[in-house]
Design goal:
Helices cover 55% and strands 4% of the residues. It has 338 residues and is mainly alpha-helical. Strands 1-2 form a two-stranded antiparallel sheet. A two-stranded antiparallel sheet has the order 3-4.
Length: 338
């Protein structure tokens, strides 16, 4: 158990401000709202505040009525909120879409090698045989949640295979940090950058693997993921800045501090339940709360980022606008602290 000092009402107020601001954003069905609404669903599940459930129902129902896009890895991120809505309402329509997404990921999504999911952002083959850390949140974690809920051993095995394979491709053996991506065509990590949000996607989703499996010790790949998670957090700990954040390039002192990465990494540290991360989480809490405006906008969140060519590409991604992933990961972190 971590030892943290915070005012519960202050956190609840911050969560509410961020959620209310998030729901003013007109985000179509894609990964941005997938991450944002995951955060809100976590807030609902932890606080049981019916307001959060109702605003999610209203927005998701509107999006469903307008028509769903063609599925990709990124659009499958919306599966997370659908699980929560189904559990809360029993509406079979939500679950039908969940299973349609699972069907796509298992049988239609692009894969390479030994069944590794290729990251896709559109119906086109934009990034041939590329592994991105983002896929862990958008697809692998979603598949694990559904597999665990259904006791579907085939789906659990596939999800764990994605985690295990992504760790093998993306986690550096020496530093234990995570690269943003890997090209199986070029047999390289492309620019070879330890991107901040990639490390957040990896850390947070790995923190969720063991809790979602009742008998996790019977799954060798789950045990392996646990080791990858442990080593990554140890590598991230000394790279936290004095302001309690992490940088958009994790090990680059010339790159800016980035709040969505910090929120995801700090949430993973909370979920690890390792008391030796208490100081890191406490610093992160101070830093992240200071980056929430009075209106609930999360500040200093980098824009959508492909695997860039070099360090300059990551350093120059703008951080001056509001983004659903920044809102969602921040709510996820604050809710985890609660």
């Amino acid at each position: 158990m971590l030892k943290l000092n915070f005012e519960k009402e202050e956190l609840l107020d911050a969560i509410d401000r961020v959620i209310c601001k998030t729901m003013t954003m007109s985000m179509p069905w894609d990964w941005s709202c997938g991450v944002a609404y995951y955060g809100i669903s976590q807030a609902y599940e932890k606080t049981k505040n019916e307001k959060y459930l109702n605003i999610l129902i209203d927005r998701v129902d509107e999006l469903i009525e307008l028509g769903l896009p063609e599925f990709t890895v990124n659009t499958c991120a919306m599966g997370h909120v659908l699980i929560t809505l189904y559990d809360a309402t029993g509406n079979q329509g939500y679950w039908d879409i969940v299973m349609n997404k699972v069907e796509f990921l298992q049988h239609k999504a692009l894969r390479f090698g030994e069944g590794v999911l290729q990251h896709t952002v559109s119906p086109n083959n934009d990034f041939p045989e590329q592994v991105w850390a983002d896929t862990l949140f958008m697809a692998a974690f979603f598949m694990l949640r559904v597999g665990a809920k259904l006791n579907d051993e085939e789906l659990i095995a596939d999800a764990l295979h994605q985690f295990y394979s992504h760790a093998k491709y993306l986690q550096d053996e020496e530093s234990s940090l995570w690269y943003h991506g890997y090209s199986n065509v070029a047999k390289s990590h492309m620019s070879g950058i330890y991107w901040g949000r990639a490390n957040a996607w990896a850390a947070y989703t790995m923190s969720q693997v063991k809790p979602h499996l009742k008998e996790w010790y019977h799954y060798p790949k789950c045990i392996a993921v646990g080791y990858a998670f442990r080593d990554q957090l140890e590598a991230l700990k000394p790279l936290q800045t004095e302001n309690g954040l992490w940088r958009t390039i994790i090990d680059d002192p010339e790159s800016y501090e980035e709040v969505s990465a910090a929120a995801g990494i700090a949430a993973a540290m909370v979920e690890s339940e390792n008391p030796l991360y208490s100081k890191c989480v406490q610093k992160a809490l101070t830093g992240i709360l200071s980056n929430i405006s009075e209106t609930g906008r999360v500040l200093n969140v980098s824009g959508g980022t492909a695997v860039m060519r070099d360090k300059a590409g990551y350093r120059e991604i703008p951080k001056d606008w509001i983004h659903g992933w920044g809102q969602g990961l921040t709510v996820t972190f604050l809710t985890a602290v609660l």
